Amino acid sequence: MPGQEPEPYVKHGSVSTPPDFFAVEAASLRWLADAPDGAAVVGVQSVEPKRIVLDHLDLARPTPEAAEAFGRALARTHAAGAPAFGAPPAGWEGDGFIGRQRMSMRPTPHWGTFYAEQRVLPYAREAHAVDHLSAAALAAVERVASRLRAGDFDDDRPPARIHGDLWSGNVIFTPNGVVMIDPAAHGGHGLTDLAMLHLFGVPGLDRIDAAYAEVAGLDPGWRDLIGLHQLHPLLVHAVSHGPAYGSEAASVAFRYR
């Protein structure tokens, strides 16, 4: 009926859904929403152990203007910062999830150590255990992890407030611009969100990149590190989606070993 409020979007869990699954999602959304002038996120109406109720989102056709605005806003979300690399969203203690897989969130002072020990190695070892990553590929990943721990890829950027699972399905174009959904938010490196957008594609990616890079003041050559930041999602997918992702992760690892 005219003037009737749209029904909220309800996500239901199953018997096997962990009791903290939706709670950490709600905490992630609220933390991202607290970033001053940051990217919009879907609103949380209520959360229970087996369901979360979110605001309704109307869909709209992507536009270059919306993509540019999102790139600028995402840079401001990242600039809102986090207490440390690996830090969970405010109001949350303990680990989180990426998709349905557990994701460690332990505060760490250096990005390389955090990324190696909490994002790369655990999923590489699991992918190898289920025969989705070869022994040679695992060895290459472990060499990359050694370089990460040594600080070879660290820079002077402080921990960013990142979405953490920013593939195209979690970037919703609405009449009021882009809205992010389904985060795995934590303290990380801003390039990690951009790398996920590059991995699976999103409308207006070039506009997003340019606007983000301008506001964030990215160093020249930042694109050379996109593959490194894609290693984690590729390994996550290798665990759950098969050896094709393991092969792609191997190709990336051989570039950065």
Task: Tell me what you see in this structure.
With about 260 residues, this protein is of the alpha+beta class. The chain is about 45% helix and about 15% strand. It is built from eight helices and ten strands. It has helices at about 20-35, 65-80, 110-130, 135-150, 190-200, 205-215, 225-240, 245-255; strands at about 10, 40, 45-50, 50-55, 95-100, 100-105, 160, 170-175, 175-180, 185-190. A three-stranded antiparallel beta sheet has the order 1-4-3, covered by helices on one side. Strand 3 (about 45-50) and strand 4 (about 50-55) form a beta hairpin. The chain starts with 8 loop residues before the first strand and ends with a helix.
Distance between the termini: 60 Å
Structural class, please?
alpha+beta
Order of helices and strands: EHEEEHEEHHEEEEHHHH
* Broad shape: globular
Provide the helix percentage: 40-55%
Number of helices: 8
The side-by-side strand order for the widest beta sheet comes to 1-4-3
Largest sheet: 3 strands, antiparallel
Which stretches are poorly predicted, pLDDT < 50 over at least 5 residues?
A: none
What would the average pLDDT be, to the nearest integer? 97
Approximate strand percentage: 5-15%
Radius of gyration: 18 Å
| DSSP strand tally | 10
